[in-house]
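User: Some background: our group keeps a shared notebook of sequences we're curious about, and every so often someone picks one and asks for a predicted structure to add to the entry. Today it's my turn. The entry only has the sequence so far, pasted here. Could you supply the structure so I can complete it?
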Amino acid sequence: MKIWTSVHHAVTALVLTVGLMAPALAADSVTNVGKQVPINILINASPWYGGFEKVTELYQKQTGNKVSLDVTPYNGMLEKARNAVRGDKSPYDILNIDTAWTIEFYKGGFLKPLTQIQPGYAMPKQVFTCGGSYYWNAQKQWRTPVGGELMAVPPNCNTQVLVYRKDLFKAAKLAPPKTFDEVLDDCKKLQKPGLYGYVTRGERGNGIWYDFLPFLYAYGGSEVADPENGDFTSTLNSPKALAALDKFIEIEKTCAPANRGAIGQADVIQLMATGNVAMAQVVIAAWPYFENPTKSVVVGKIAAVENPSVAGGKPGVPMGNWHFAVPKNIPEANQKAALAFMKWFLTKDAQMAYAKAGGIPVRSDVMAELSKEPKYAWMAAYKQSLEDAVQPIGYAEGAAVEDVMGLRLNQALIGQKSPAAALNTAAAEIEAIFKKNGRKTGHLPPLPQ
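Assistant: Of course. Here's the predicted structure to add to the notebook entry:
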């Protein structure tokens, strides 16, 4: 397997000790995918990449078909995908697209619907639909299986969870927190020199935007009023959103490292793996890193629960899933080869191998079997999170809105703007984005500053 490594990323160096012998075939296996032309996949350098690399090796071993991987840091993925679909011919046969970017590609007509590659194709019923984001209803301009066309399949249904040191909580006679107030209380009780109470991403861009969403959703806030039904009123500067941001900043200032405004995903994972934090809000895909004895000193000492809520409310769980999609501007043979790989990847056998190699499975039957084993106990939190998760930013302007929120939230966290000023500014900028595109939009009254 040819791998193009665009950047060295510590997380992708995850050493996997799981053997990947070809498993016995399940009833729905499509291991015999036939001879296919070689394919290239644009894939992100994420915590779950190690598992994907291993399962891709298994695909080549079982089928004899060749796969090349262009391993790219998150910040380079969108630009590469945009350039690929707008050229005469895409250099990639499978694009991995973040959920916040999908509408741009769906609405723009850059992707080949999977049922046009193989009429009648449908994902196995055991595969999670991750909030329906793999379907596009062109008439309604919304991601939904209802009247929607299948545009992509899931490499994961990444949700956030709260990871905590169960040994520290047990010693302090504390139960895992269920609310953000309890997170703050527990943090104060647990932290000491060399041990931070809580950490999440605060870096400018996608990091803080996505990691603020659990607070925003738990407090009943939103960034847009009702985009599914055409109401793009900017709501990020609501009192509920301000309460969420105030709590986010309070916890960060009380519990996180002093450089909280520069902390990214690799930093959060490293702090937990090195035993320097008691709680971390992370995507479930980070779990294998914590249990890798070559990278982590907390093996066997951590547990996962669903994200906290506000007292009496529902947990705030954003869906951060990825999408394997086929660009339209590649030859028909490559389109068929791409779908052959994706169909194989979604089989029970492949998903079982994927999970055991450190990937995050997307099949309910695989999770049901593995969750019975102690080492996969985290799957219970993952399953519950999937049931409560919300798909963020389901509109074409998603990447632009993400950029606005990433900048303004970071400014509030590091003190460049007050929380109210940051939200007022972001709301006005989001409204302008929608107005430029002719959306029905507006804004809420400014928050007092």
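Suggested note for the entry: Residues 7 and 388 are 35 Å apart (CA to CA). Confidence is low (pLDDT under 50) at residues 5-29.
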